[in-house]
Amino acid sequence: MALIVQKYGGSSVADAESIKRVAKRIVDTRRAGHDVVVAVSAMGDTTDELLELAHDVAPIPAPRELDMLLSSGERISMALLAMTIHSMGFEARSFTGSQAGMITDSHHGKARIVDVTPVRLREALDEGAIVIVAGFQGFNRDTRDITTLGRGGSDTTAVALAAALNADVCEIYSDVDGIFTADPRVIPRARKLDRISSEEMLELAANGAKVLYIRAVEYARRHGVLIHARSTFSSAEGTYVLGEGMQAPRPSEGEAMEEPIVAGVATDLSQAKITVAGVPDVPGKAAEIFKIVAKSGANVDMIVQNVSAASTGRTDISFTLPKADASSAIKALAAEQSDVGFENLLHDDQIGKLSVVGAGMRTHSGVSAILFEALSAGGINIEMISTSEIRISVVLRGSDLAEAARTVHSAYGLDSEIEAIVHAGTGR
Ligand code: ASP
Ligand code: MG
């Protein structure tokens, strides 16, 4: 008998039918003799709808009230799920984040979990109940207010519960069969992975993969939680996300096969590029520029500085950042133009970023050559390049991104024989 934490995303509990399907799955797990703790998201697009409502009544809703409002989405789904389970003849009890002992810092809208004290959950489990917890929310002890963990935060709730309760596995259910070598909506030939290391998963998530929420993967890695990402629509094994020294419960077929060098390809259309043109090529200019950008609150990703033209002694510095941060960064830079002494600013929000991730890059050479050859054969121009120990990223025209991703995916031999099945459509 194991303790299993299961997380169901919004698309898995979008309506009464779906809630019944999920309830059946939970009850089946209970019938198999396991203790079950469930973290549940708000139904379908509830969170988006609540956000929209908030902005209809107030241009800038108060963060405290916004968390009050958004946290109600998960209260609806948790109560409905518990009722459904009752009607199937099983004992279930739902708990809000604060009842579940999900203690966070006071940062409304993006709170971090600082402690989990699941006293009431333990009691309920001891009494034989199935435990349902509202995802995405917590409670701050100092302000005594309800907080939310940021969009997609129910994954983190599930992982934090799994860590605090010392669960055997944290199953994260969505409408896709697991973690794929690429987003199946972009690359239909993407292949489901049986397992992936948490460090590879983190790189993929940080570079645009949306199947798991990055904070949840970080939390799992820090606390040694085994994640199993799988589909609500099938009972097939999904993908195990393995931290250091972790083993998947059942060795998969093809175990003898050598680990692939590349685990996956991620695409990201959410970034913009800013070029600071005609920067005097003297010490201290990059420091000045990025101090200004940092003060504007922007999160810089890639940076490229060109060789300066001998005739002018000036150079161009380009960097990428989230599209949403671009206008404030540009405003901040423009205000200091004469102090820094650059010539002008270019803003480009039509870029796409393609990343190839694989732990095998540490020990294999020629991995980047395959990427560049594939792009060259496809006639796709590269604008920026950056690498980490286990990742190569390139910036391209956004309109080239999907085609580039398909070409690169197949160049690394990742294409599967069959097209991936995407059941409902959001991947959450
Ligand atoms: N309901 C929240 C959201 O849509 C949390 C979640 O789904 O994980 O972001
Ligand atoms: Mg949601």
Summarize the structure.
The protein has twelve helices and 20 strands.
Q: Can you tell me about this structure?
A:
By secondary structure, this protein is α/β, with parallel strands linked by helices. The protein has 2 domains: 3-250, Carbamate kinase (3-Layer(aba) Sandwich); 251-428, 2-Layer Sandwich (VC0802-like), CATH 3.30.2130.10. Helices cover 33% and strands 25% of the residues. It has 12 helices and 20 strands. α11 crosses α12. The structure holds aspartic acid (ASP) and magnesium ion. Residues 10, 41-42, 47, 428 line the site of magnesium ion.
Helical residue percent band: 25-40%
Q: What Rg is obtained from the alpha carbons, in whole angstroms?
A: 23 Å
**Tally of DSSP helical segments:** 12
Bound molecules: aspartic acid, magnesium ion
Q: Regions with pLDDT < 50 over 5+ consecutive residues? A: none
CATH architecture of the largest domain: 3-Layer(aba) Sandwich
Strand order of the largest sheet: 3-6-2-1-9-11-12-10
CATH class designation of the largest domain:
Alpha Beta
Give the topology:
Elements: E1 3-8, H1 16-31, E2 35-40, H2 46-57, H3 63-87, E3 92-95, E4 102-104, E5 113-116, H4 119-126, E6 130-134, E7 137-140, E8 145-148, H5 154-164, E9 169-174, E10 195-197, H6 198-206, H7 214-223, E11 227-231, E12 239-242, E13 264-268, E14 271-280, H8 285-295, E15 303-305, E16 314-322, H9 323-335, H10 337-340, E17 344-348, E18 351-357, H11 367-377, E19 384-388, E20 391-397, H12 401-411
Parallel strand pairs: 1-2, 1-9, 2-6, 3-6, 9-11, 10-12
Antiparallel strand pairs: 4-5, 7-8, 11-12, 13-18, 14-16, 14-17, 15-16, 18-20, 19-20
Helix pairs in contact: 1-3, 2-3, 5-7, 6-7, 8-9, 11-12
Bound molecules: aspartic acid (ASP) and magnesium ion (MG).
Aspartic acid binds next to loops.
